[in-house]
Amino acid sequence: MLRKLLIGTALGSGLAFAAHAQDVKEVEMLHWWTSGGEAAALNVLKEDLAKQGFAWKDVPVAGGGGDAAMTALKAMVAAGNYPTASQMLGYTVLDYAAAGVMGDLTETAVKEGWDKSVPAALQKFSVYDGKWVAAPVNVHSVNWLWINKAVMDKIGGTEPKTFDEFIALLDKAKAAGVIPLALGGQNWQEATMFDSVVLSTGGPEFYKKAFNDLDEEQLKSDTMKKSFDNLAKLVTYVDPNFSGRDWNLATAMVIKGDALVQVMGDWAKGEFNAAKKTPGTDFLCYRFPGTDGSVVYNSDMFGMFDVPEDRKAAQAALATATLSKSFQSAFNVVKGSVPARTDVPDTDFDACGKKGMADLKAANEGGTLFGSLAQGYGAPPAVANAYKDVVSKFVHGQIKTSDEAVTQLVNAIEDAK
Amino acid sequence: MTTVATQIKLTPEHNARPGASVRSRLQDALPKIVLAPSFAITIVFVYGFILWTVYLSFTNSKTFPSYALTGPRAYQRLWRWTFESDPPSSWYTSITNMGIFGFLYIFICLALGLFLAILLDQKIRGEGMLRPIYLYPMALSFIVTGVAWKWFLDPGLGLEQTLHQWGWTSFHFDWIKNKDFVIYTVVIAGVWQASGFIMAMFLAGLRGIDGEIMKAAQIDGATTVQLYRRIVIPLLRPVFLSAFIVLAHLAIKSYDLVVALTSGGPGGSAWLPSNFMYEYTFKRNEMAVGSASAVIMLMTITAIIVPYLYSELRERPR
User: Fold this and answer.
1) Where is the chain membrane-spanning (chain A) (predicted)?
2) In terms of Cα–Cα distance, which of A338, A371, A344, A342 is closest to A356?
């Protein structure tokens, strides 16, 4: 038995040694894009890499969803067994970079000119200490309204340009007997909507100072109180059964015409697409009233780990393919988001996608591209979750007034810093 | 295994004593050898990690463990949160929910389980069929129970909707959507799942009671109520102990039920300490706070279970 073991070990190390001499033609990838549309979109990348001779290996994640994947990643990294790359969000990339486990893509980045084509706000998360550590895949923006066109026509509504017009539109829907606002009462959905409300109420400057710089003066200002009051107004337009509902069920309410509008990030468009609905004829996409010209974003990134030398070539190929114009276009058309570089042609995108891309470009140039606090791009997870707690407790009535909400917000953020 | 085998082979050469004594010595050592691996695994993976968690709770670990001790800051935060009741902090919600859930869950399960067991023990027909029906929910995972009850209790989908369609339009039952009542829906689902199992435990206990005692009591003129109150239930005391321990640990580790049934409840109002621990350790990257809450959970369980076990087990030898 011992001899067998010895032989086995010898063979094994021999194999490993032989493999070391040559590059490993394989990318090992941890991600949670397993649903139909997402998996199809990712297939484009797999095929790109297959053409160059790189095999694709998924890291299996039990349970699905981002949380399970992040727990799995933590375990892999703690064991020193890094995947080639992993789907990551916002501050997670920076956390891992600070722990010194991320690779260095700067060479590829310089060659491909990412510095110029990727929006500066995104580079805050993909560049650490002057080194590129992640390849952004897409940009989602959260300040959108998704409206059922048939219901809109029935009640004779027009695009709301200000918050008051939005309230008037919701009133019309209420009078016509449809649920005005489809909302899923989970903390991240409520907070995602509140991101837009704050941007609309206080304007871009205010949003940046309060939710990206976490300036205490702004957090406890009257503008923030007004934002909470506006949120309270919006919540009066949801159906009584909203608590705990999943976001895609809320989208389905709009698709079916049970509800007029949902405030949600552009991943909601994927649901409309899956239901074979066309923008302009079946549904409408407007910016959240009063936020036109600004984009509150979040972004999926492929974090690149510090893999052994023999895997670096595969990693560089993956990064190059991820930010190639063809993949950026093909992937984002399916996903509902917009490309993470601003120089991709918008020919394949639908009307909403085209608007999203134009908005992103304008926001990038005008300095009005902000990280979404609810989606973990405004502040580290501890702060973002404390924020979600406060918003959710306000929506569900544990926190009763906007005064109290503001005090709680300041305390919670201070506590979590 | 290889090392053990080698030792056995080697020993006769080095040992002057005859083989029989080696064999008997080996026989003496065998239980220890067999138990050693599982003992070692338990030491490391249970008690080792408990110590590690305690250690982490005194650091300022965030996303990853950090090993520099920085004092009891995590406990100070939890202590402060313990008294933040308006608006309730997440920790305050978690521990009050634990109190409500733990008490009601254990109490109702014991009461219902005993009641059903007594009914089933009346030598009724079809007992063989009824018993598995009550027992079956225990075979389901908490996730299944949670999802099924979530649908059943959802006002737009389940019970309320159905009764409205049948014409009882004034019926109103929205506990699962209500921040003040959502924890009671967790109790309902939990009791539904566990009470059948507790019933089976009590039933086994009832069957173990000597029929002679019952007959003697009946001859002495005891009524049925007296019979159960004075004789049967006191005799079931060891069963109460086992049932209590089973229920207490189920209550403390109910994490999945809350997630599947309520996904945390409106504004996080259905959280239990285990949800708090997971949320802070893995989602908020506050590993120190998560560890501290885990330590407090352990302390609480110890404080309840150890005196109870001590008082119950000490009386046995008498």
Assistant:
1) none
2) A338
